[in-house]
Amino acid sequence: MIEATDVLDVDDLTAGDLETVLDRAAAIKAGEDENELTRRTLAMVFEKPSTRTRTSFETAMTRLGGHAIFLGPDDIHLGSGEPVKDTARALAGYADAIMARLFDHADAEELAAYADVPVINGLTDDAHPCQTLADLLTVRERFDGFDDVTVAWVGDGNNVAQSFVLGAALADLDLTVTTPPEYGVDDDVLDRAAELGRTPRVVDDPGAAVADADVVYTDVWVSMGEEDVREEKLRAFEGYQLNADLLAGNDALVMHCLPAHRGEEVTDEVVESDRSIVWQQAENRLHAQAGLLVELLA
Ligand code: CP
Ligand code: NVA
């Protein structure tokens, strides 16, 4: 059992919790874990679209013998004005846990404050902790641990980046971050990483950031909900694309949480190359979340 009751961001887990979840995920993936969540229900609230998060959580619940209910923006009253705190208490009366993908991170906090069942953040504008669990599982599989592994984050200091910064701190993983100055990781996240004992190296030059990296990680430049600032963001991120030129000097593996916008933050050639581990990362969403669900509910 882990100490965390809600997982709104990675630093809701202790370093011990993280290791426990990753170990449980690895055992489930290897077919070596007997835990089941029979007759347990996960309510899944989505304000934004999803391919991986929805399907991996739903599949995890099915494989564990439980059930997941998809509640999209047109399915429940949250989208037409029922307060988050009312949705929280109603859903908690039926479901054993709630997973939510919301715009405003404060809404995820309110959901957790009012629901007396575990609440898991399936992505907010500020954080994507379940993605980080899968990312760390993937790095651990590839390198047999985190020692002497260097990861470079290249691109936007967005929700995926911010949770990964916290995950790297918790896993004691060496991380370099390069973003356009105005799109960096929030100071609050860097402070929280420092409290966990490890802050990333922040550098200006993408070439310098990737030079010694074992893994280079990127995500879209225009996240869901940012469509109105698309043109100015595309201009700001010139030079941050993961392409053959940027990666020419090393043999680093490439990660992307997906969906990838080929031709923007990454080229099709890089996504489809032998160095790309994006499909392993995507599959690991299933195993990492199964591990988390077992630790929270079994
Ligand atoms: N990486 C990720 O969360 O993908 P989806 O938006 O498809 O869920
Ligand atoms: N940063 C992206 C991640 C998608 C999984 C977004 O928020 O749209």
From TrEMBL:
Tell me, what's a Pfam family for it?
Answer: OTCace_N
UniProt-annotated location(s): Cytoplasm
Binding-site residues for L-ornithine, renumbered to this chain: N159, D219, S223, M224
Q: Which reaction does it catalyse?
A: carbamoyl phosphate + L-ornithine = L-citrulline + phosphate + H(+)
Kindly give the InterPro entries that the UniProt entry links to this protein: Asp/Orn_carbamoyltranf_P-bd, Asp/Orn_carbamoylTrfase, Asp/Orn_carbamoylTrfase_sf, Asp_carbamoyltransf_Asp/Orn-bd, Orn/put_carbamltrans, OTCase_ArgI
What's any one GO cellular component for it? cytoplasm
Q: What is its EC number?
A: 2.1.3.3
**Protein residues bound to carbamoyl phosphate:** S50, T51, R52, T53, R101, H128, P129, C130, Q131, C257, L258, R285
Q: Where is the Aspartate/ornithine carbamoyltransferase Asp/Orn-binding domain?
A: 148-294
Q: Which PROSITE patterns match?
A: CARBAMOYLTRANSFERASE
Keywords on record: Cytoplasm, Transferase
UniProt record, GO biological process: citrulline biosynthetic process; L-arginine biosynthetic process via ornithine
Which stretches make up the Aspartate/ornithine carbamoyltransferase carbamoyl-P binding domain? 6-141
Q: Does the keyword NAD apply?
A: no
GO molecular function terms attached to this record: amino acid binding; ornithine carbamoyltransferase activity
Do the record's keywords include Ligase?
Answer: no
What family does this chain come from, according to its entry? Belongs to the aspartate/ornithine carbamoyltransferase superfamily. OTCase family.
Q: Cite the PANTHER family for this sequence.
A: ORNITHINE CARBAMOYLTRANSFERASE, MITOCHONDRIAL (PTHR45753), ORNITHINE TRANSCARBAMYLASE, MITOCHONDRIAL (PTHR45753:SF3)
Name of the protein described by the UniProt record:
Ornithine carbamoyltransferase
Organism source for this protein? Haloplanus salinus
Q: Which gene encodes it?
A: argF
